[in-house]
Structures are given as structure tokens and as C-alpha cells.
Design goal:
Length: 394
């Protein structure tokens, strides 16, 4: 086999791993900027944009599924091409991730593009959580089970594995991901203070900089009613203006409003109420279980003898796990729901975003991956049917 690359093709970013080099992350979108009207920025070209206000996103994914192939192709062409990775596709093998519950038509288009257009030597299609399971297994020899919690951009999935084999009937999905959280923050701020509905890029940064998971929701709500310095939740966030201020930031210490040029938004309840949606989707009218309930539900569908092992090996992946207190809160909620005699143990990887991709790189170094590749010749002989057989629920 030639060079192998891992493409964790997420709805908001591509995570790309090559053997013996660092994993890189590229936006999976095309952007249009208000200030540079005639220009499209494909993926990481956005790094060269000077003004991120009113940035318009064109995404290949909608509601978690790849639907805009033209946009996806432009992003892949750019990232694989000479300006970025400069891949020799026809001399490489590629592991590509796809969402859970993907559509057959999307899988077929994927096979066709990677074999017929990019002419990869062999491909392997799998779910990102499967790669995470391989990583977890490798890092925790002796453990046969794990539950991968993937808090992605469009959804959150809970996927238990036994000996790296997905327990399909136990997979659980919550329709909350990073995108919904950012949208909710935009709506709340637009309703209460300042119209920011077009400021996805900036508000996503506000979310990442200022939001946290509450360890005491009612207590934090009470704190938010206090005035002045006693309201220790309150933060003022200085928005970027792209002349003096290139990136927004939290203003240090409590300040009384000034007449300065800075444009600020005042954050209180939304700092913790936004991530709380992951724990209580019903807060925003989504009639689904919260994260801890969903994990317990998923584990209850696994065979009884594996359940204690599942609860001891829960691994957190995806960008929305990065909120402050995320792990502690989930641990507490699970502790409350699980039977007393069972241990609960959660792992927060150093980088929950690239974890699946790291797992893919690990897997390519083992023999167990061999049987899962499908070569170009096999595709030319067996077509889509060969792919469907080969990539059935890995
Ligand atoms: C890959 O493509 C390049 C450029 O089209 C060509 O020169 C090279 O021979 C091809 N390699 C293989 C293994 O087909
Ligand atoms: C290649 C592969 O295994 N894809 C799977 C991803 O997960 C969904 C549901 O769990 C499966 O239907 C796909 O086949």
C-alpha cells in the first residue's frame, strides 16, 4: 500500500491526518465576505480575509448530511490540491468518515468520487466514532468496551463499542450540536441587545470564549439576578471591529458601561443556558433525552454483562465537549442516574476534535485494518455492490 491519509469529513471542518505528520483542520465551507464582495474564500483561504463581519457560509452539509456536492468538491479540490496538501491521490489510500444513519445515495456518490474522479488506490469508509473506538482501545489495552460520545456540529451521537465492533442497536442521537448552540446564542443576543443574526463567525467565537457548563443551574440563575459586582456570572464581551480589534475578547473585571468606541455585548444567563441545551434539549422545545439520560439509555441496550464496562469507559469527542465543566457535569448527572454499585469513568482526550483522526492513524498501523480496504480494481470489478458489502457497518 502507498501513502495513507485519514479524512474525518465533518460538517463544519475536515480533520486530515497523514502518517508521520500532524493532523490539520480545515473549514468545510466556502465563505463570502461583506467587505470583499466579489470574492469567495474556499476553506482555509478564509485565513487571508481581513474582516469576518457578516461572513456568509456556504456549507456542503445540511442538517448533518452531505447534500451540496458542488461545494464539497471545491473544498476537497482545494485542500487536496497544490496550495494545501498537494496529494498524489492516485498513489494514496484514504479512510473517509461518514455520518451515522447516512443515506445510500450519499454513500454511492462518495465511492464514485473517490474512486473515479480522485482515483485513490483504495478507500475505506467508516464512521468517525469507529476510529475513536480504535484510538481508545489502543490507549487502554485490556478494556474491551467503550462508549463514544460525539458532540459534533449537527448532532450528538452516543455509540457503544464492544471489541471495536459497534453495538448498532444501541446507537443514540440527540439533535443538538455546535451549530444549534451558536444559533441559539445569536437569537438570544439579537432579541435582547444587538442584532447579530448575520454574525455566525463572531458569535461562534463568543460561544467558545464565554460559555460554560453550569454545575449548579438554579444557583447560577440566582446569581444572574444580582446587581453589580455580586453578579459573578456577568461578562462584557468586546466585539471585533476589524480595524483596531481583530478578534473579540472578554473584558477583564467588572466595568461600568463607558462611552468608548468599543462595541460590547453583555453576557449573563446565556453563558451557561446555551450549553445547558445539551443536557436538557427540552429547554428549547426539542423533545429528546439529555446527554446523561441518552448515555444510560444507550448502555441499557447493550448486553448486560458489558454494561458495567461501558460505564467505565466513556470517551468524549467533538468540539462541543470543550466547554468548561463539561466532563464534571456529565459525570455528576451520570452518577445520579447509574446504579450505585457501578463505576462511572469518563475520558476527555487532550484534543476531542482530532481524536477520531488520531484513531484512524493508529488503526492504519495495525493488521486488523487490512481486510477493510477496497481497492480500485475491486471497485472496477464489483462496482457499488462491492462497496456496499465491504463498508457494511464498520
Ligand atoms: C498519477 O497521476 C499522475 C498525473 O496524472 C501520473 O503522472 C502518474 O503516473 C499516476 N500514477 C499512477 C500510479 O497511476
Ligand atoms: C461505513 C459504515 O460503517 N457506515 C455506517 C455508519 O453508521 C451508520 C449507522 O450506525 C451505518 O448505517 C453506516 O453503514
Amino acid at each position: 500500500l502507498g501513502n495513507t491519509i485519514i479524512l474525518d469529513n465533518g460538517a463544519s471542518s475536515l480533520k486530515i491526518g497523514k502518517v508521520d505528520s500532524q493532523i490539520s483542520i480545515y473549514p468545510n465551507s466556502i465563505f463570502r465576505s461583506k467587505s470583499e464582495r466579489r470574492k469567495n474564500f474556499v476553506s482555509n483561504q478564509i485565513d487571508g480575509c481581513k474582516d469576518y463581519s457578516s461572513l456568509f457560509y456556504v456549507l456542503p452539509f445540511q442538517k448533518g448530511y452531505l447534500v451540496n456536492w458542488d461545494v464539497q468538491r471545491q473544498v476537497w479540490d482545494h485542500v487536496f490540491g497544490k496550495d494545501v496538501l498537494n496529494l498524489k491521490c492516485n498513489e494514496s489510500n484514504i479512510v473517509i468518515t461518514e455520518p451515522h444513519f447516512n443515506f445510500g445515495s450519499i454513500q454511492e456518490a462518495m465511492n464514485e468520487i473517490f474512486f473515479e474522479e480522485y482515483e485513490f488506490q483504495s478507500i475505506l469508509r467508516t464512521n468517525a466514532s469507529t476510529l475513536s473506538s480504535h484510538k481508545y482501545n489502543n490507549d487502554n489495552p485490556g478494556e474491551e468496551c467503550c462508549v463514544v460520545v460525539d458532540c459534533g456540529y449537527s448532532f450528538t451521537h452516543i455509540v457503544p463499542y464492544h471489541k471495536n465492533v459497534k453495538v448498532s442497536e444501541a446507537v443514540c442521537r440527540i439533535d443538538v450540536g455546535g451549530k444549534l448552540l451558536t444559533n441559539h446564542l445569536k437569537e438570544v443576543i439579537s432579541y435582547r441587545q444587538l442584532q447579530v443574526m448575520d454574525e455566525t463567525y463572531v458569535m461562534n467565537q463568543v460561544k467558545e470564549d464565554a460559555c460554560y457548563v453550569s454545575m449548579d443551574f438554579n444557583g447560577d440563575m440566582e446569581t444572574c439576578k444580582l446587581k453589580g459586582k455580586d453578579n459573578i456570572v456577568l461578562r462584557d464581551y468586546v466585539l471585533p471591529d476589524y480595524t483596531q480589534i481583530k478578534r473579540g475578547y472578554i473584558k477583564v473585571g467588572y466595568t461600568t458601561p463607558t462611552k468608548s468606541q468599543e462595541q460590547m455585548i453583555r453576557l449573563t444567563v446565556e453563558r451557561f443556558a446555551v450549553p445547558e441545551i445539551l443536557f436538557h434539549p427540552s429547554d428549547v422545545g426539542i423533545p429528546q433525552m439529555g446527554l446523561a439520560e441518552a448515555i444510560m439509555h444507550s448502555v441499557s441496550k447493550c448486553s448486560e454483562d458489558t454494561q458495567p464496562h461501558m460505564l467505565r469507559n466513556i470517551v468524549l469527542t467533538g468540539g462541543s465537549c470543550k466547554f468548561l465543566n463539561f466532563k464534571q457535569r456529565l459525570e455528576e448527572d451520570l452518577r445520579r442516574l447509574a446504579p450505585d454499585h457501578l463505576d462511572i469513568c469518563l475520558t476527555m482526550p487532550e484534543n476531542p476534535v482530532t481524536y477520531a483522526c488520531e484513531g484512524g492513524l493508529r488503526w492504519t498501523k495495525t493488521n486488523t485494518i487490512r481486510e477493510h480496504w477496497l481497492t480500485l480494481e475491486e471497485y472496477q470489478e464489483g462496482g457499488q455492490a462491492a462497496c456496499a458489502r465491504q463498508f457494511y457497518d464498520i
